[in-house]
C-alpha cells in the first residue's frame, strides 16, 4: 500500500490474490467509499472478500446506516478529538 500510495497517489487499484483491489487513502478520497451507493460499490463483494480476514458479522456485514455512523466518526474533526484518548491508552 505504501508503495502504491507513493507511486500512484491516493486512489489506485492493484491485483491481490484473485481480485483487483482499489485503495482509497486519505481524507480527500475515503468519503467516496463510505458514501457510495450499492450501484457504485458492491457491499456484497467487499464483505465476501473480507470474511476470511475479519470473520462474519464484522464491519463489512453492516449496511448503509452503520456506514454513515463510521463516516461521521472518521471525519478529520472527530479524529482530532480522539487523540488525547489514544495517547492516554497508549501510555497505560
Written account of the structure:
- By secondary structure, the protein is α+β, with helices and mostly antiparallel strands.
- It has one domain.
- Helix content is 55%, strand content 13%.
- The protein has five helices and two strands.
- It has a two-stranded antiparallel sheet.
- Strand 1 and strand 2 form a beta hairpin.
- The protein is globular.
- The two termini are 30 Å apart.
- The model has no long low-confidence stretch (mean pLDDT 80).
Structure summary:
By secondary structure, the chain is α+β, with helices and mostly antiparallel strands. It has five helices and two strands, in the order αββαααα. The protein has one domain.
List the helices and strands and how they pair.
Elements: H1 2-8, E1 11-16, E2 19-24, H2 30-35, H3 43-54, H4 64-73, H5 76-91
Antiparallel strand pairs: 1-2
What is the chain-wise order of helices and strands? HEEHHHH
Q: Please give the number of β-strands.
A: 2
Strand arrangement, largest sheet?
Answer: 1-2
SS strand fraction: 5-15%
EC number: 1.14.13.70
Protein name: Cytochrome P450, family 51 (Sterol14-demethylase)
Enzyme class: oxidoreductase
Keywords: Methyltransferase, Oxidoreductase, Transferase
